[in-house]
Amino acid sequence: MMFDMLDSLSASQAKQGIRRLLVLSGEAAWCEAQSRRLRARFPGDWLWVSPGQRAGLHCVPGALRTLLGREFLHGVFDARDGLDAEALAALAGTLQAGSWLVLLTPDWQRWPTQPDADSVRWSDSPQPIPTPVFIHHLQTCLEADTQTLLWRQSSEPRLPVECIRPDWQRANGAPLAGQQDILARLRQMNDGVAVVTAPRGRGKSALAGMLIHDWPGPCVVTAPARAATDVLARHAHDKGLFVAPDALLQALEEGTAPQGDWLVIDEAAALPTPVLRRLIDAYPRVLMTTTVQGYEGTGRGFMLKFCASVARLQHYSLNVPVRWASGCPLEHFIDTLLLFDDTLPALKTGVALTTEAPQPDLWQRAPALAGQTYRLLSGAHYRTSPLDLRRMMDAPGQFFALTRAGEMPVAAAWLVAEGGLSPALSLSVWAGVRRPRGNLVAQSLAAHGASPFAATLKGLRVSRIAVHPQLQRRGTGSHLLASLRQFARGYDYLCVSFGYTAELWRFWQRAGFTLVRFGTHREASSGCYSAMALLPLTPAGQRLTQLQQARLARDVPWLAREVDEKIPVNAVAASTLNKRDEWELAGFAFAHRPPEASLGSLQRLLLSVSQPLPALRAWLEQRQDTATICVMLNLTGRKALLARWREETAQALATSNEARTRTLAQCLGKVKKFQ
Q1: Quick one: which H or E segment has residue 24?
Q2: What does the alpha-carbon distance between residue 87 and residue 63 come to, in Å, rounded to a whole number?
Q3: Rg (Cα) of the chain, in Å, rounded?
Q4: What DSSP line would sit under 525-592, residue for residue?
Q5: What is the reported pLDDT for 267?
Q6: Where are the beta strands (DSSP E) in 153-237?
């Protein structure tokens, strides 16, 4: 009887061009049996998404991004051991009109208390933890959604409420009105860069394929994965030359890149921004398409960071679904569950602002307010994604400080407790022997900084901060940060890790923060160098800040050679070794500190000794690359070269002070044994 009703539902949703969610909640064997019956009854691709391998069309959650741009009829998402929210949303984005998304879950009552395997990715816990807040939120959304088929093993299925919908006409390959308007504008472009953004299923890739098909000259296509360009290729009728991004970059370097009137970059937000900058400079016309929806975290960064930096960029958007009908129940459910609508209401004038102490239980105490806070953070920050939503709801050590206008949050700071490691563990982190989960800044202060015991202090890291657009540049964010000084009792410092821009640094500097670390590699997500800053709250925090700042000032002359950004620190002339340099060099020579963390000390070592030290001098003074040095010294690769660097550092230290070097080596030998 149940499957007869499913026959009718499947036929109607195919006719109406919609997709629905079907939840199977119960014992693992029962869920498995019902899913087999569904797959046997309804023909389709039945893409199965689960961590473990299975026969048939299968994908692990973490690899689902490689299938974006492809289409499937029906899919199964196995959440019995854990739920990757980004992958669930991505699977929904690949399903055709008429599809079922079958969600397998544990027993309904036990689910909130069952450890979630996905939590290991975002909770900084070594073992899976229960995630009751998110699971309760998910269950509430499922029970409230009248278009979801909810089938619990212990009860009768709850069928979707049938709605009267018009018959849906599948796209016939001709451009729709919105696509036609954009195509007309693109065809008139003489040069420049255009970007088309939209949620999934709006026909971005199809539009790119139509442009290639109609264009009289050659076009080059690139994308993070060739499989993701299936839709584009179908509408281009096999015109356009596909070249993988890394191969295209290499060809550009060698002067052998294919010629093209257009370079089309499908799903551009998934490529690192330095790669995008190099690619768009190489062709007269560039079309980028990308999805700017929450489950693809870089999409927002693409708009906020990259597109804002491209001169004369033409931005177009598509809103009407092409691959399914408007009002699709599955799309509506995913949007509701993951709070994808980050539209902020306008502020009323004259409402007084109040700032509250950080709350660790905002989602439990006031879920509606917490949802508004997440939308505020999501709308302002380029990295916010469903993984962050899960972390905010259930990870330990999360706090939320708010400034409100009446009941509405207008500024929010998401804080994460860090540090408090034992002296032995902090020393082990400094030596490069241990890297326990979590404690982003606290561990970096030890692993890359001047103090082996930096991670013993306690800090509050500002993970995100956002201000309502109507209140930006009025000091609201700085006021919220200032309030944290009185609220953050028991902590030694506030800290932040951010992608460096001069404008963003001015904000943190005005708030009283001191720059203590500057990375030498640009982040793929933002295209910026990573930077860290501290605001001390206690005398111990003040001493740590001064120590780290002094070390950065001594190292700036050498760091500046590695980056193409002005580091906003006054350099201190320091060509001689001090005690901390010797300790740091011993950590490099006799433990596992990375060479980049010892860059300044190694440079000062070379200035203070006259030994040949060919491997170190070739790297630091002659600035030769790893491959060249390995050939010159007959070494097998980077691992062997790193060992040689450590050996030469030990030799130089012993020449300067053999007894002290022996003592340091013995001390660090004990640290290496601490596990």
Answers
A1: strand 20-25
A2: 9
A3: 28
A4: TTSSEEEEEEEE-SHHHHHHHHHHHHHHHHHHHHHTTT-SS---S------S--HHHHHHHHHHHHS-
A5: 85
A6: 192-198, 219-222
pLDDT at site 383: 62
pLDDT tens per residue, range 269-307? 778 777 888 999 999 999 999 876 654 544 555 666 678
Give strand pairing partners of 494.
Answer: 460, 535
- Judge whether 401 and 362 are in contact, CB under 8 Å: no
Exposed / middle / buried, residue 398 (Cβ in 10 Å: 0-12, 13-18, 19+): buried
Instruction: Kindly list the distances between the CA atom of residue 159 and the CA atoms of 61, 88, 145, 335, 666, in Å, as whole numbers in the listed order.
Output: 28, 21, 11, 21, 70
Task: Give CA–CA dist 221/228, Å, rounded.
Answer: 12
Q: How far is it, in rounded angstroms, from Cα 61 to Cα 35?
A: 18
Residue type, 77: F
Cβ atoms of 537 and 492 within 8 Å: the answer is yes
How far CA 65 is from CA of 203, 206, 272, in Å, comes to 18, 18, 15
Assess contact for 527 and 274: CB atoms under 8 A.
yes
Token readout for 38 is 């569904």
Q: CA dihedral in degrees (419, 420, 422, 423; nearest 10)? A: 70
Work out the widest C-alpha separation in the chain, in whole angstroms.
Answer: 88
Q: SS3 for 638? A: helix
Closest by Cα among 94, 313, 312, 92 to 197 = 313
Q: Which residues are bridge partners to 315 per DSSP? A: 195
Q: What type of residue sits at position 280?
A: I
Q: Are 597 and 580 spatial neighbours (Cβ–Cβ below 8 Å)?
A: no
Please give the single-letter amino acid code of residue 233.
Answer: A
Measure the CA–CA gap between 136 and 487, rounded to whole angstroms.
Answer: 30
Residue 460 pLDDT: 96
8-19 pLDDT, tens digit per residue, is 899 999 999 999
Are 470 and 347 spatial neighbours (Cβ–Cβ below 8 Å)?
A: yes
Scanning 381-533, the segments in alpha helix (DSSP H) are 386-394, 423-430, 440-447, 476-487, 502-510
Integer Cα distance of 159 and 157 in angstroms: 6
Beta bridge partners of 399: 415
d(CA 295, CA 240) in angstroms, rounded, equals 29
**With the C-alpha atoms ordered 141, 143, 148, 154, is the resulting torsion angle positive or negative?**
positive
Closest listed residue to residue 344, CA positions, set 433, 247, 467: 467
**Half-sphere exposure for 434 (CA within 13 Å, toward CB):** 22
Q: Where are the alpha helices (DSSP H) in 57-196?
A: 85-94, 132-144, 177-187
Half-sphere exposure for 13 (CA within 13 Å, toward CB):
32
Under 8 Å CB-to-CB from 234, ≥6 apart: which residues? 206, 209
Q: How far apart are CA 362 and CA 626, in angstroms?
A: 50
pTM of the shown model: 0.86
Q: Which residues of the chain fall short of a pLDDT of 70? A: 1, 68-69, 292-305, 342, 380-383, 524-527, 672-675
